[in-house]
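So, could you explain this one?
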Amino acid sequence: MHQPLIFIDGDQGTTGLQIHARLKGRTDLRLLTLPDAERKDPRRRAEALNSADIAILCLPDDAARDAVATLRNRQVRVIDASSAHRTAPGWVYGLPELDAQQPERIACAMRVSNPGCYPTGAIALLRPLIEAGLLPADYPLAIHAISGYSGGGRGAVERHEHAGEQRLPALQLYGLELAHKHVPEIQAHAGLSARPLFLPGYGDYRQGIVLTTALHLRLLRPGVTAEHLQACLQQHYHGARHVQLMPLHQQGPATALDPEALNGSDDLRLALYANPEHGQVLLSAVFDNLGKGAAGAAVQNLDLLLSALRR
């Protein structure tokens, strides 16, 4: 049986190293790795890309676009882990949990764009509610998320783990101009007609994300309750392998949200917290930014592409 050849372009970056480690021991595929001296050679990279059955791009956005432009072999399937193609025509969005048909769309695609880490949590919470008509597409959303510093890439890891005596902030909020590059992705794939406000930050810990957004029930369709929102997510994610939906938390003691709770996992944990007295609901997502937020998602999409090659 043919073992598909997989090439990771950018396998020395944070996401690339994680993907390589996950695939290294597998016997159902072959990994093509360039020697250190050839990793930045455009000719050798182009040769590797065009010889692969599936190429995984773990590159900055411009480099990812350049890599796609070098493809001459029309049989090469691509998973792009950058944000270069997440709203581009002709690319399938690599979130299998988007709807019931999405896994098959990914499996049959030639071009798959891996979701961003923050959008993974936001879209997973919002899209089912918007599709069901429980959340208006023009709701004025404010989304807040904190990630471990590895979300900033290799440079951020170096700064935090080799800072010496320099003390780095315990928490840094950024994107304060409200123009983060993930906003169009969230808006497009969640099905929002109004641009959401998105404020991200980095904590002084290596990995893990906690993302939240709050809703006022009075701004939803009349009669919609936290129980309706919970039931919608329960139905949407029934049987989903990598999504955990926690029981609805009503007013009273609740477990604190720990961004590191799913580190080392490829799962996404969703939870709703409700205050019936004031008609407010908090939607939350916890996941590993290097797992379901990056490498884990890429491998999940890779397995869908491989399933199609085996048919």
The mean pLDDT is 94. The first helix runs from residue 14 to 23. The first strand starts at residue 5 and ends at 9. Residues 108 and 308 are 6 Å apart (CA to CA).
